[in-house]
Amino acid sequence: MRRYQMFIDGEPSDSASGEWFETANPYTGEPWAQIPRGTAADVDRAVGAARRAFAGGPWPELTASERGHLLLRLADVLAREASRLAEIEVRDNGKLYAEMSAQLKYLPAWFRYFGGLADKIQGAVIPLDKKGYFNFTRREPLGVVAVITPWNSPLMLTAWKIAPALAAGCTVVLKPSEFTSASTLEFVRLFEEAGFPKGVVNAVTGFGAEVGAALVEHRDVACISFTGADSTGRRINEAAAATFKHVSLELGGKSPNIVFADANLDDALNGAISGIFAATGQTCIAGSRLLLQSSIHDEFVERLVKLAATARMGNPMDPATEVGPVTTPPQYEKVLSYIDIAKSDGARLLLGGKPASKPECGTGWFFEPTIFGDVTSSMRIAQEEVFGPVLSVMRFEDEEEALRIANDVRFGLGAGVWTSDIGRAFRMSERLQAGTVWVNTYRAVSCMSPFGGYKDSGLGRENGMAAIEAYLQTKSVWINTGAQVDNPFVIR
Description:
Mean pLDDT: 97
Family: Belongs to the aldehyde dehydrogenase family.
Domain Aldehyde dehydrogenase: 16-477
Strand content: 15-25%
Largest sheet: 7 strands, mixed
InterPro entries: Ald_DH/histidinol_DH, Ald_DH_C, Ald_DH_CS_CYS, Ald_DH_CS_GLU, Ald_DH_N, Aldehyde_DH_dom
Distance between the termini: 68 Å
Number of strands: 23
CATH superfamily of the largest domain: Aldehyde Dehydrogenase, Chain A, domain 1
Oligomer: single chain
Active site: 250
Protein name: Aldehyde dehydrogenase family protein
Number of domains: 2
Structural class: alpha/beta
């Protein structure tokens, strides 16, 4: 069994406690590696290293262009290691190698994009309404950033946060999910090869109550960037407020995937399948609510159930596999519980609804693709994030009703619209309460396009030029060029 170490101040490190915990392969259900069980003492060491690296030494002495060059170099190293890291992620979180491989091969784009942006961070000269003064602004890094990531796409979501943070000039302490820490511990070692100074990037592993809380509360952490459950995000936001930390929160969703009668139904059918059964539904942007216009409802549902029933389950490393296992035992139990909740609320089970027992599913945590019909907005299955391969089908008559149903949740991360009417596409994209609206596609993301949520789906934006704002603060500088300093008791 592989035994990993944390990464603090440029060196591999065991935990202060000397303890480890096991991480399991979701396909087999068997442990395959040991991860250090970090403590508050380890957090203090890591934050201290990051603070020292931020305040002195080579990192703050680099020009913005030199920081960008380091990110570009890291992108090259990461591209070389992409396949190996993808295999580790599959072993640790059970997602398909086809998807993890595509993610990891695209991951260098984040470091190239923000590497190029590093020396484009600009202040401004302010045209004042006062004579005798020159005023300009500087954009400066916040300091130490705590990056806390979930288990569903560990390295992709790490890149979304760490690339802009480093481009801004911050230093970082990473805390991956206790369920999927291995790929992060492999990833952080690449920074030394890319030439980053010691202490700029650190990783502490462990449990939320022991490591995550210590990071959030640490006096020297200036910013927290978190992706995960909205309940955890709410607690982080409350704790951060006590010391006025900056926060960036991406907290999941209950996204509507809306199909109008004039859509290309073949494309919409594939989009509906992709929206909920890709990644086994374990994605914050899962299109877990399928809204169908009444005139096509019955035909579409019939085709949907037939197609979903053919989904191939099994070894996520097999290129033929289309649906992999649920990543963690607690999540597996949560998915199971929502089946009973949906039935008791009156939803009609159309497909699945039980653990998968096919021989090709091995001994891991597999759950059949599941579809419920006759779902209404008042049902918990339509309001709460299941985070699994469970789809709720809802019926609507016209645009107004589609919008009412789509917006009738506390989340607002993503939404899909399928239509051939360009006017409708614009109207829907304007009125949907979601941070991302896809029209005639679904699950498309880019390092160049902002991503984030409305309502309970979070605060701030990741990706694109907007992402770097989370890690910068503005300083206003006033220079007296000849103004008379007279009455000291009057504001100038």
